[in-house]
Write a structure and sequence with these properties.
28% of the residues lie in helices and 23% in strands. By secondary structure, it is an alpha/beta fold. Helix 7 links the parallel strand 6 and strand 7.
């Protein structure tokens, strides 16, 4: 199905693109005119034109090599857009690897990350042509060395390092907590690089901070990493050629004006690269690459006043959009239709029988009513595949893309019978 855009919409929040708002309004108008009733509790819409422009701007530099963390959004059309713009791919499972390869991406552009690499998985990745690995344990190092010897190949290896900071700050990726991601410098010093002749161990990987919104804070953390990593490389008699700083670049979900400056990031990383003395500096972008191109749309099922608080119950909630429940950071939201009414705060609840199913307390036009559609922004990352769609057997969300002015369905909404046995 395709729909062409021709309406100019001017009243909208900054995070909502004109093209997306136009597409949603035209879609609804066409449904009314054609007496179409869509069986969709909620759906995602990704603006691939917006994504292409954003990715192109990220690639206009020669300081860092960019990888896309596939966990952020593995949809085929999103991956193809990333590949066309020159991104490489960070995959953490066989499923992600298969999805990337099926888009025609060469295995040479794939980096295998993730803490749970078994001996079987490492050999399977090598068999499928992957030659770049982040190793997170002594076992993984030995298994990869053995598999590479059996297959007569020499993969490139980065050792994942876990550091601790005196600030004691916690973070979704661990921050200062001890996690399963990599090993401490002390633990890595138990190895000798020369004991693994079939591996090209020439890099270190470190990534413990997620959704950072301060350029100054990020540069401070990166700066603190250099000395311990250089010391580790020296102790291992390892030629440090590659430093992978992971991702962690945040987006402003709360709309507090805390957006990162990409030119500042590049300038800061040029300093880090020079201080570390490496020939290659890598970043694995997830949300920073794709969050802004994605939107989630669902409908109001009920409205009520409860203990003097206005409440809206929605067709879709954390079964389609889990992140607010685990981060306490809601996605920004607005009505699809235009309204001139003054806004007021509403508690937004989904359809699940748990108090966890809340998408936030957010401002909406006071005339919102049953049947209205709401659109949530910044939903291009950690949306569809991070949700919990199976609880209570509600519908699986549909997925659409907007490309060159046309909306196209990539995945239809599916009933619970699609997966129930």
């Amino acid at each position: 199905m395709t729909e062409t855009l021709n309406t100019n919409i001017s009243s909208k929040p900054d995070w909502l693109s004109t093209a997306i708002q136009t597409a949603l309004i035209e879609r609804n108008e066409a449904d009314v005119q054609n007496s179409v009733t869509r069986d969709e509790d909620g759906f995602y819409l990704y603006d691939l034109d917006q994504l292409e422009l954003h990715l192109s701007s990220l690639m206009q530099q020669d300081v860092i090599k960019l990888w896309f963390a596939v966990k952020a959004n593995p949809l085929s059309r999103v991956l193809k857009t990333l590949a066309q713009q020159g991104f490489n791919f960070d995959v953490a499972s066989q499923g992600e690897l298969s999805q990337v390869l099926s888009q025609g991406v060469s295995a040479e552009r794939i980096l295998n990350t993730g803490p749970a690499k078994s001996k079987q998985q490492l050999k399977a990745f090598l068999t499928q042509g992957v030659r770049t690995f982040v190793v997170e344990s002594l076992n993984q190092l030995q298994w990869l060395n053995q598999a590479a010897s059996e297959l007569s190949c020499q993969p490139q290896v980065l050792l994942r390092v876990q550091l601790q900071w005196q600030e004691g700050e916690k973070n979704p990726l661990g921050g200062n907590e001890v996690t399963a991601f990599g090993l401490s410098c002390q633990e890595w010093q138990a190895i000798k690089v020369t004991d693994f002749p079939t591996l090209k161990i020439n890099g270190l990987h470190i990534f413990q901070w997620g959704n950072m919104l301060s350029n100054e804070r990020m540069y401070d953390l990166w700066s603190q990493m250099i000395d311990p990593l250089l010391t580790l490389a020296e102790n291992l008699a390892m030629k440090l050629e590659v430093l992978d700083l992971g991702g962690g670049l945040g987006v402003d979900y709360l709309q507090n004006g805390q957006s990162l400056s990409w030119p500042t990031i590049i300038a800061d990383l040029a300093k880090i690269k020079a201080r570390a003395g490496v020939s290659e500096l890598w970043l694995e972008l997830g949300r920073y690459a794709v969050a802004e191109m994605g939107y989630y749309v669902t409908s109001v099922v009920d409205r009520k006043n409860n203990f003097e608080q206005q409440q809206l119950v929605l067709s879709g909630g954390i079964n389609h959009l889990l992140r607010p429940a685990i981060t306490e950071q809601p996605f920004p939201v607005t009505l699809v239709r235009e309204s001139v009414e003054e806004p007021c705060y509403f508690d937004l609840h989904g359809p699940l029988c748990t108090s966890l199913d809340k998408l936030g307390t957010l401002l909406l036009a006071s005339d919102v009513e049953v049947g209205d559609q709401l659109v949530f922004g910044l939903a291009g990352a950690y949306g569809f595949t991070e949700s919990m769609p199976f609880f209570l057997c509600h519908q699986i969300a549909a997925e659409y893309v907007l490309e060159q002015g046309k909306v196209e369905q990539v995945r239809a909404a599916e009933p619970a019978t699609w997966y129930l046995r």
